[in-house]
From TrEMBL:
It comes from the Eukaryota. This is Malate dehydrogenase. It comes from Plectus sambesii. Keywords: Oxidoreductase. The lineage of its organism: Eukaryota, Metazoa, Ecdysozoa, Nematoda, Chromadorea. Coiled coil: none annotated. One of its GO terms (molecular function) is oxidoreductase activity. InterPro entries: Mal/L-sulf/L-lact_DH-like_ah, Mal/L-sulf/L-lact_DH-like_NADP, Mal/L-sulfo/L-lacto_DH-like_sf, Malate/L-lactate_DH-like. The keyword Mitochondrion does not apply.
Length: 420
């Protein structure tokens, strides 16, 4: 199945409250040796009084203005803007502009360095150990993944581990850099302790994300980007900002480590549950994944690890996060990697769904659907409540707030329906 930004074609059908996107995805049906059109239906319900659309250009300028006011050099600010906007564009609002204030605080308080470049401490063949020199996480992450890509070109694999880093945004950004070079990419990071390991009444692990991206054919790809908890901490922040009073079971716990469905309790002294939730539903597996990522990042990288990492949103000490970046050249192994992966993804997507309106997806499909929607709206959709803190930042830093257009400009009208 071919699913890329270029091949996605969306036709929005709009009313004042409902926006439907029929996403037409051409893919090669191997059984019949012809081109088939797979239609993925996405329903987005908008409330004109609560939601807005903002162009990427406006968002980028806003991030650059804020970071400049905070004291960040332009090059570092641009790298940060890339990843924050990409995160929201892909639908990962928890790690997009929702996190801008965290980076600004780190720069303003000098908890994060604004000058210099990461340093290679040790290098052997396909591996490298890097000191991030306490720079912005995206600056460290881009340096390390680019180094891993270079090594993969020479040795078939590049494995780079860093210490002295900071929050680096979505792990998928770095795997995408390898993917764009025709390589498989993986990225991991440890985070501040916010997770109650199975059977524990104390938080000692981070939400430690795992990402793996690999190329299929014609721009299609497998793209897994997930926390090793049931959800990322930022997702609960976004849900709470949107006014929700209850979260699904298995997401979070109260300060004593017992499951709660109140987002405010989770965010005020509570924490996350590992992937799987409680022990009976497999939470011990999520605990193991959290620890695996910690071994690859904090332990192997010589950074802070586990409960020793500074608390979230504190700046008294450096974050000293550990991160791991891997690039793999599939051509070093069995021939036909792209074809076999494409066949694997096609067969998965072609499975008979439980619900005819809910197609079987592979990792990366939801993000591609979200990006297609944003492309046709010529911007990214935000709840106004999500942007309250950005208005506050703009006021405090004395920078202009970005301009936005309301969804009412897309009022139902045949003239506004784009033909395929």
């Amino acid at each position: 199945m071919i699913v890329t930004g270029a091949l996605y074609q969306c036709k929005p059908v709009l009313s004042r409250q409902n926006l439907w996107f029929f996403v037409r995805v051409p893919y090669w049906h191997r059984a019949y040796d012809n081109l088939t059109i797979f239609i993925m239906r996405i329903k987005k319900i908008f409330n004109e009084s609560e939601e807005i659309v903002v162009s990427k250009k406006e968002l980028r300028q806003f991030v650059l203005n804020c970071m400049k006011a905070a004291g960040s050099p332009a090059d570092h600010a641009n790298q940060l803007a890339d990843i924050l906007i990409t995160s929201d564009y892909r639908g990962h609002y928890s790690h997009g502009l929702n996190r801008l204030g965290v980076y600004i605080t780190d720069v303003e308080t000098k908890a994060c360095s604004v000058e210099g470049t990461p340093e290679i401490l040790k290098e052997k063949g396909s591996t490298a150990w890097v000191d991030g020199c306490n720079l912005l996480g995206p600056v460290v992450g881009n340096f390390c993944m680019d180094l891993a890509i270079k090594k993969a070109r020479e040795f078939g694999i590049g494995w780079v581990v860093a210490k002295g880093s900071n929050h680096f945004g979505i792990a998928g950004w770095y795997a995408m850099r390898a993917l764009n070079e025709g390589l498989a990419g993986m990225a991991f990071t440890n985070t501040s302790p916010c997770v109650f390991p199975t059977r524990s009444s104390e938080k000692s692990l981070g939400s430690n994300p795992i990402c793996m991206a690999a190329p299929g054919n014609h721009g299609d790809s497998f793209f897994l980007d997930m926390a090793s908890t049931t959800v990322a901490y930022g997702k609960i922040e976004v849900v709470e900002k949107r006014g929700a009073t209850k979260i699904p079971a298995g997401w979070g716990a109260n300060p004593e480590g017992r499951e709660t469905r109140d987002p405010k309790v989770v965010l005020n002294g509570g924490g996350l549950l590992p992937l799987g939730g409680q022990e009976a539903s497999g939470g011990y597996k999520g605990t193991g994944l959290c620890m695996m990522v910690e071994i690859l990042c904090g332990i192997m990288g010589g950074s802070a690890y586990g409960a020793n990492i500074r608390q979230w949103k504190t700046t008294e000490t450096a974050a000293d996060l550990g991160q791991c970046f891997v690039a793999i050249d599939p051509d070093c192994f069995a021939p036909g990697f792209n074809d076999r992966l494409q066949g694997f993804m096609d067969s998965t997507r072609n499975l008979k769904p439980l619900d005819a309106n809910e197609s079987v997806l592979v990792a990366g499909d939801p993000e591609r659907s979200h990006m297609a929607m944003c492309d046709d709206l010529d911007g990214i959709v935000y709840k106004k409540t999500q942007l309250v803190h950005l208005n506050e930042l703009a006021s405090r830093l004395d920078v202009p707030m970005f301009k936005a257009k309301t969804l009412s400009v897309f009022a139902s009208d045949d003239k506004n329906v784009m033909d395929l």
